[in-house]
Structures are given as C-alpha cells and as structure tokens.
Amino acid sequence: MKTTLKTTYSKTFGHSRDEAEDPWAGRAKKLEKEKPAKKAAAPAKRDEEDPPWLKTISSLATEKGREKEGLFLAEGERVVLEIAGHHRDLVQGIYVDEGFDNEELREKIKEARLRIHALTPPQMKQASSVVSCPGIFAVCRLASEKPNYDTARIITLVDGIQDPGNLGSIFRNATGFGICGIILGRGTVDPFNPKVVRGSSGCFLRTPFETGIDLKERFSLLRQKGFCIVATSPHAKKSITELTPRQAKKVAILIGNEGSGTNKQVSELADEWVKIPMENTLESLNVAVAHGILCYQIAQMRG
C-alpha cells in the first residue's frame, strides 16, 4: 500500500497542473483567453523573478518545508529520469534552466507525458538545494510504500545514520541486491532529504521503507514473521555466510550510526552477530560499503 502526503498544487503554485501552460500562468484565466500562449511552456516572465511559488520550492531543502508542503526535490538529470520513468504519478512539475539543452532527456520526459517549465538562471539558483546547480529538478509528492513482512526475505534496519550520502548509497545497495524493505529507526536522516535523493540516484522509492520507527519494538514483529536479526561486530566469530539455512531464509540486517555504531540497547537484542572479513589493520568500513558487502554476500548465498 502506497502512503502519500498530499498537497493542494493550485494553492501552492498558483495554478493547476492540468490548466497551466507554465508555472507563471497563475494569473486570471481571462487574460489567458484573451491572449493564449504561443508555446506549451513559456519562459519565466522577467517581472516575476521572485514569485511566491519559488519560495515554496526553495523551502523543500528543509525537512520542515517538506512536511508543510508534502513535497520533495529530485535534482539532476539521472535523478529526474529515474523519478519520471518509475514514479511519474508523484511528479508535480519538472523545471529546467532556460538554457537546458539535453534533447534526449527532454524527449524521455515528454514520453512520460510530463511538462517541462523553464526558469531563469537566478530562479534556478534560488530553487536548487546545491551550490553547483544541476540545471534540472522535479518537484514530487512525498510517498512511500511499506514493506510486506510476510513476503519479504531480506530487510535492512537503519539505526541513527546521519549522513544523507550514506543513506542514499544504502538505498542504491537495496535496489541493486533486491532488498525487500528498509526500516529507518528514530534519529535517522530524512529519506526525502535532497542529498539522500541524489545519493540514491533517485531509486530510493523503488524499495519499500518506513521511517521514524522504534527498532526495539519492531524486532518483535520481525521475529513473529520469521526473521533472524543480524548485527555486525569486528569481534564476531563468524560471517553472515555461515548462518544456518533456517536463519538465512529471512534476514534483517542491522546497521548503525557512522561514528558511534548501532545503539547498544538495540544491537544487544540481535539474534546473531557477524563480521566482515578484512585486514586487521583497518578498524572499520564506511557504513554504506559494509551494507553493500553484506547484501552481496546474502545474494551469493541465495544463488
């Protein structure tokens, strides 16, 4: 079941998705009838360089703004292509710098029946969440699909990861290795953070996930569904490939904070502890790298 936080698009941007020819068309319909636009998507009007809807888009760089508007930013060519190709129903609008010249991407967006709106360079800079503006972004509705714990075979439990780039990479691992769901514990960075979205190359929505979860409470449900909860430690005696066939049938991998690791009160409740074999001279691995290795090992076990 997909859960969606809805927003009133016309109230936010001053125009409806179906009626507007461009994001600056929130003027009286009378004017539109008197002088219809020559093109489907007109360029930004120079007398409207700082419209209210632009401030709304700018606010999506913050968690408070995303919660208020029920929207998030997807920035960059690869990210927009991913979102438009797999989640076009969530796209409210696609915005490009007026000099954007990737005709191949334009055609793919057109094939997805999504409208492109042109922004002036100053508007694009104001709307973007990054210093080096990528020249294209999509405004999308917040949505997530919950994992199906009955059919899932591999779940990732995330405890307090703060770096959005790491969480984005974890979502990419999940997509690449067929992880069935991700449970984001309390204190974990917002999955709709623009840096998470970019770090995942936009594919974070392909994996069902839940956020703001009390992991200790969720352990009970996972065990009821037959999952073996696995935590990592350099002091563990075995690797994840040494789990018994029964344990490996349904696995929940627990990964923790970049600096402090998994909360002890959470990790001590794990069913098994495993290690990643590596040279003793290295103290630890990046959390996203470690997660990728574990996902690969489980994928190999399953053939």
Describe the structure.
This protein is of the alpha/beta class. It folds into 2 domains: 2-144, 60s Ribosomal Protein L30, Chain: A (2-Layer Sandwich), CATH 3.30.1330; 146-301, Alpha/beta knot (3-Layer(aba) Sandwich), CATH 3.40.1280. Helix content is 35%, strand content 20%. The protein has helices spanning 9-13, 29-34, 52-58, 63-69, 77-86, 103-111, 121-127, 164-177, 194-199, 215-224, 245-249, 264-267, 287-301, and strands at 2-5, 71-75, 91-97, 116-119, 136-145, 154-159, 181-185, 209-213, 228-232, 251-256, 272-274. The strands form 2 sheets. Strands 8-7-6-10-9-11 form a 6-stranded parallel sheet, sandwiched between helices. Strands 1, 2, 3, 4 and 5 form a 5-stranded mixed sheet that branches. Helix 8 (164-177) links the parallel strand 6 and strand 7 (181-185). The longest helix has 15 residues, at 287-301.
SS field, number of helical segments:
13
The oligomeric status of these chains comes to single chain
State the end-to-end CA separation.
29 Å
Uncertain segments are 4-11, 14-47
Shape: elongated
Task: Please tell me how large the radius of gyration is.
Answer: 22 Å
CATH topology of the largest domain: Alpha/beta knot
For the largest beta-sheet, the strand count, sense and barrel status come to: 6 strands, parallel
Total strands: 11
Which strand order spans the largest sheet, edge to edge or round the barrel?
A: 8-7-6-10-9-11
Any key phrases for this structure?
303 residues; alpha/beta; 60s Ribosomal Protein L30, Chain: A; Alpha/beta knot; 2 domains; six-stranded parallel β-sheet; five-stranded mixed β-sheet; elongated
